[in-house]
Write a structure and sequence with these properties.
Helix content is about 40%, strand content about 30%. The protein has helices spanning about 25-30, 60-75, 90-100, 115-130, and strands at about 5-10, 15-20, 45-55, 80-85, 110-115.
Length: about 130
């Protein structure tokens, strides 16, 4: 498995850390099974997807659209919230920004950041505005 998942902030947050080479099918499966990893999905207000340690991911526009579709389906079962994507590398950062652009009409706000600290600050600010 190319990721670890940690439930954070008393069950209101999820931190998924991706590492190494990530097959796109694994990313899609993780997105499909997202809700199964949560003890109480109704409490989830935020998630951080940290791709800082990813060495390679085979991703194209079609894959991006499929991940968007799958995450949107999961999101429809949740209260509004925030998802931060941490991507320091240029190519994955560009793809993450495309994902963000296609996510403008979702109930979960998506932010893309270069560092985990920036992502956490954005989530804190967003949660304070709820």
């Amino acid at each position: 498995m190319s990721y670890t998942t940690e439930i954070i902030h008393g069950g209101t947050g999820l931190l998924r850390i991706w590492h190494g080479e990530v097959p796109i099918q694994e990313m899609l499966d993780a997105a499909r099974n997202f809700l199964d990893e949560l003890p109480d999905p109704a409490r989830l207000t935020h998630a951080i997807m940290d791709l800082s340690d990813v060495s390679r991911v085979q991703f194209d526009l079609g894959s991006l659209m499929e991940v968007l579709k799958v995450t949107r389906e999961s999101e429809e079962k949740l209260n509004p919230g925030f998802m931060a994507v941490v991507v320091p590398g240029s190519l994955l950062y560009g793809l993450a920004r495309m994902y963000q652009g296609y996510s403008h009409d979702r109930t979960w706000k998506v932010g893309v950041f270069r560092t985990l600290q920036e992502a956490e600050a954005w989530i804190r600010e967003g949660l304070g505005a709820l």
